[in-house]
Amino acid sequence: MRKLVFATNNQHKTEEIRAALEGKYEVLNLEDIGCLVDIPETADTFEGNATLKSSYVVKHFHLDCFADDSGLEVEALNNEPGIYSARYAGSRDSLENIQMVLARLEGNPNRKARFKTVISLMLNSQNHIFEGIIEGTIRTALSGSKGFGYDPIFQPAGYEITFAEMDMAEKNKISHRAIALKKMLEFLKGI
Ligand code: ITT
């Protein structure tokens, strides 16, 4: 089976992507290839940060690689936390990040939000970009224990449950990451 490196340290993201690419690609993450650094994400866009991660692997390991940068954009918070999603409250603690969003939105009737993923796929040193977005709303309290990050407060449009109440298979059908990944797979099929 063809191998692809997914430049992430996030085990939840690795599991989601492995499940989505099962049978098609063997997905290796940064730990699997012995890349133990936290690649600096210093760009000010999702696209820029995804590209920093994928290029790092190409430069230092000479392997084809993709990376995603993703996050939550809340309309009433000027699209924050955005690229700062992983450390919105100062650390990588998901609960603290969630509480920060809920506190800043308290009493605000506009609960509109979206998850966004941008994938950078580096193939033969060429960068290919794929984007996925899912619209939804922010609940007033946490619900569910599956998934990761902001899943317990994000309710996708058209659903009555949060991402954290969905099975991974169900989330993988509709999520921002799934949408971007599907575009990448279509592209890979065509080459
Ligand atoms: P890598 O950079 O190592 O891939 P990361 O966790 O830092 O892992 P991102 O830079 O893409 O990943 O940060 C995205 C943050 O946005 C992530 O830590 C979560 O807090 C949030 N996030 C992204 N996708 C999510 C999802 O599907 N469900 C819930 N939260 C998500």
UniProtKB/TrEMBL annotation:
<feature type="binding site">
    <location>
        <position position="171"/>
    </location>
    <ligand>
        <name>substrate</name>
    </ligand>
</feature>
<feature type="binding site">
    <location>
        <begin position="8"/>
        <end position="13"/>
    </location>
    <ligand>
        <name>substrate</name>
    </ligand>
</feature>
<keyword id="KW-0378">Hydrolase</keyword>
<dbReference type="GO" id="GO:0036222">
    <property type="term" value="F:XTP diphosphatase activity"/>
</dbReference>
<dbReference type="GO" id="GO:0000166">
    <property type="term" value="F:nucleotide binding"/>
</dbReference>
<keyword id="KW-0546">Nucleotide metabolism</keyword>
<comment type="subunit">
    <text>Homodimer.</text>
</comment>
<dbReference type="GO" id="GO:0035870">
    <property type="term" value="F:dITP diphosphatase activity"/>
</dbReference>
<dbReference type="InterPro" id="IPR029001">
    <property type="entry name" value="ITPase-like_fam"/>
</dbReference>
<comment type="function">
    <text>Pyrophosphatase that catalyzes the hydrolysis of nucleoside triphosphates to their monophosphate derivatives, with a high preference for the non-canonical purine nucleotides XTP (xanthosine triphosphate), dITP (deoxyinosine triphosphate) and ITP. Seems to function as a house-cleaning enzyme that removes non-canonical purine nucleotides from the nucleotide pool, thus preventing their incorporation into DNA/RNA and avoiding chromosomal lesions.</text>
</comment>
<comment type="similarity">
    <text>Belongs to the HAM1 NTPase family.</text>
</comment>
<dbReference type="GO" id="GO:0046872">
    <property type="term" value="F:metal ion binding"/>
</dbReference>
<feature type="binding site">
    <location>
        <begin position="176"/>
        <end position="177"/>
    </location>
    <ligand>
        <name>substrate</name>
    </ligand>
</feature>
<protein>
    <recommendedName>
        <fullName>dITP/XTP pyrophosphatase</fullName>
        <ecNumber>3.6.1.66</ecNumber>
    </recommendedName>
</protein>
<dbReference type="InterPro" id="IPR002637">
    <property type="entry name" value="RdgB/HAM1"/>
</dbReference>
<feature type="active site" description="Proton acceptor">
    <location>
        <position position="69"/>
    </location>
</feature>
<keyword id="KW-0547">Nucleotide-binding</keyword>
<keyword id="KW-0479">Metal-binding</keyword>
<dbReference type="Pfam" id="PF01725">
    <property type="entry name" value="Ham1p_like"/>
</dbReference>
<dbReference type="InterPro" id="IPR020922">
    <property type="entry name" value="dITP/XTP_pyrophosphatase"/>
</dbReference>
<dbReference type="GO" id="GO:0036220">
    <property type="term" value="F:ITP diphosphatase activity"/>
</dbReference>
<feature type="binding site">
    <location>
        <position position="70"/>
    </location>
    <ligand>
        <name>substrate</name>
    </ligand>
</feature>
<dbReference type="GO" id="GO:0005829">
    <property type="term" value="C:cytosol"/>
</dbReference>
<dbReference type="GO" id="GO:0009117">
    <property type="term" value="P:nucleotide metabolic process"/>
</dbReference>
<dbReference type="GO" id="GO:0017111">
    <property type="term" value="F:ribonucleoside triphosphate phosphatase activity"/>
</dbReference>
<dbReference type="GO" id="GO:0009146">
    <property type="term" value="P:purine nucleoside triphosphate catabolic process"/>
</dbReference>
<feature type="binding site">
    <location>
        <position position="69"/>
    </location>
    <ligand>
        <name>Mg(2+)</name>
    </ligand>
</feature>
<feature type="binding site">
    <location>
        <begin position="148"/>
        <end position="151"/>
    </location>
    <ligand>
        <name>substrate</name>
    </ligand>
</feature>
<keyword id="KW-0460">Magnesium</keyword>
